[in-house]
UniProtKB/TrEMBL annotation:
Superkingdom of origin: Eukaryota
Limits of the BTB domain: 19-87
GO biological process: protein homooligomerization
SMART domains the UniProt entry points to: BTB
PANTHER family, A to Z: BTB/POZ DOMAIN-CONTAINING ADAPTER FOR CUL3-MEDIATED RHOA DEGRADATION PROTEIN FAMILY MEMBER, RE57120P
InterPro entries: BACURD1-3, BTB/POZ_dom, SKP1/BTB/POZ_sf, T1-type_BTB
Name of the protein described by the UniProt record: BTB domain-containing protein
Matches recorded under SUPFAM superfamilies: POZ domain
The species this protein was found in: Helicocarpus griseus UAMH5409
Amino acid sequence: MSELVQKLQRCALDYVSEGPITLQVGDRRFKTTVQTLVQKSGYFKKVFSGPSLTQKFEEGPLFVDADPGLFGHILNYLRRGVFPLKFNATQGHDYGFYATLLQEAKYFQRHGLVTFLEDQCFHKCVTWETTSQDCDWNFVVDESSVTSVQLFRDRETEGKVYICPRGIDCHRGSPEACGCQCQKALGDDEPSYDTETVSKYQCVKRKLRFNPEWMAEDGRAFAAYQAEQAILKGAGSA
């Protein structure tokens, strides 16, 4: 290819990159720019090359043979470099979605997304954190990020249990529940306690942790992983 032809192609690409273009994918249309498509996709770099580049836009929307639902995820990735994630706390990851999206990523020659899916980096985007602590049976979880809580009886001990001076059962064991009337009934006397067997529990909490450093192509953790893989491949081919 002569230097003149290459220069004309670059000029044509610069010209069409300035405005929006329309892609016809199945029964849906997508508006984007050439720059968005070519900067991360080898497929679209080939599409938007050649002397007939400007003619492609004069003929109307550019047809792309792909599933429109999956292409929407591809396009969102091309725009911002954020990886698609399909996960919920009950069912986990949608592996069928990842498998079909992987084929589309290969077709559109988007190597970062291929690596993310093939190496199952989506498992690093969402992780479970499990913690346990001693607690009573009426332990209250005040963290909105906690997904599940389980109580396990750990041991039994002899302990003192507060008795309400007015004999109110719901105040038993909870001196803070007593109000002015209870204090008045107590007067100058010391609070009374019963000795009884108290069950102690282990509270096991599970919460989800989202790791943004793995969720985008320029995320620090994913970028470091890609660099490491490139070094390993280079060493293997040497």
